What does this fold into?
Amino acid sequence: MPSYSYMDFNLGEIDMSSLFVLLVLAAFGLILAARYLFVRRCYGRAPESVSLPAGFAEPDIDGFSRRFSQLIQIPTVSWTDHSKRDPALFVRFQDKLKELYPKVHTTLERTVISEFGLVYRWKGKNSGKKPVLFLAHYDVVPAEEKGDETWQVPPFSGEIRDGILWGRGTLDIKCMIAFYMETAESLIAIGFQPQCDIYFAFGGDEEIGGPEGAGVISSQFREQHLKFDFIMDEGGVITKDQMAFLKGKPAALVGMAEKGFVTFKIRATGESGHSSMPGREGTAVSRLARGIVRLEKRPLQSRLDPVMREMLERYVPFVSPGLGIIFANLWFFSSLIRLVFSKNRVTDSLIRTTQAVTVFKAGEQENILPGEAFCLVNHRILPGDTMAGIKARHQQVLKDSSLSVADAGHWPSNDPIPASRATRAGFDLIRSVLAATHPDAVTTPFLVNGSTDSKYYADLTDQVLRFCPLVLTPADVGTIHGINEKVSLENLEKGLAFYLRLFSRL
It folds into this structure.
């Protein structure tokens, strides 16, 4: 029989400071676990699913895809060089909507703002209820081919092949206009009328800042003293195969906040002359280059925005317990999350105001000292930062009073759009509708990196929701503003089902 040695355990021999540390660690572990269980219970409840009322038909995907294809075939391209725009094409798009959706145009009030602005009002039964507003834009970016990047089908063909609709605008974002019009046409056909007024506002210049479309429309809404219960625009989608920790579940990202946008022009001047006699302080180019290096070495500080905090917390019921404890206790693990996020350029952009030097111009000839050099630095501004604050910081970091910093003025600039709370009716409605149309999706708030038309309307509501119910993989997202943009008919069918249920609750 083997022999065993036993160690006597004498509590009195334990150092009391060690015991205190053990007790503190145990208490800390209990706090982390308790918080994890609380968050898991809060966000683990399934929402009530929204079904179609009796008499509502499921989508006609074949007819819808053919109509949508005709909208793709109209090349409503926005160019930063306005002389390249063809306003007639934008008018043609507006007229095509009248042709494709006759019931919408005999039932809804239609107001043409210009070639680049179009508004519809669907009058509701209850004039005492706040209206809702749905935004989209019908302009698209150019579909130019460069080098080896070529389209498999012509970008404005609207070709339907093997269950796929191809073309510029299928994802960004003519699909939303098609969804709205198709849904309204279908519901009007069966005699449906919403309880509240529904407005549609379509801009034709979002891709170049939106001043002639959304900018003008929103001004008219202010003159009419309109306020909306909530506003929906583009911004978030249903991501697939993008978040490994969700174990295959798609994530429905509803944009509740939006980054701001500004491009600063940093300018250096110097004495021009012969290159054989440069000054000791360097040329305008070298002084500007030194300033850029200082900026690049000092990225803006990272932090977890409240929207990003809530997004991670809502993932708690769907991830492993270890990760769930981290997501549920961001008060303690925030630094760890920011460290991990900073290692990837996509996630890093969600935790800080970004700065990107995108243009550098100076000099005309190698033997002439340039009298001026400038660069453009584009920023996407995290909520909590401001354009004025970034400008002041740059002037401090550059450490050169001869370098000027000014808004480049090429695009409309704006501070971040304040976050909406994800406890309001609009977000909860989206979540309930998705429970019916995309039951596997985990619906969470999201911070939108880009700039949308909704910035013009933010003061007209307490909640802006940036979301389109398309299921997209990373490869799909890569075609937006790229080549081979396309959407599956299955995606379109589920998107229509989403809007049919959504509108039936308004």
Q: What stands out?
A: Residues 16-43 form the longest helix (28 residues). The CA atoms of residues 51 and 501 lie 7 Å apart. The longest strand covers residues 260-269.
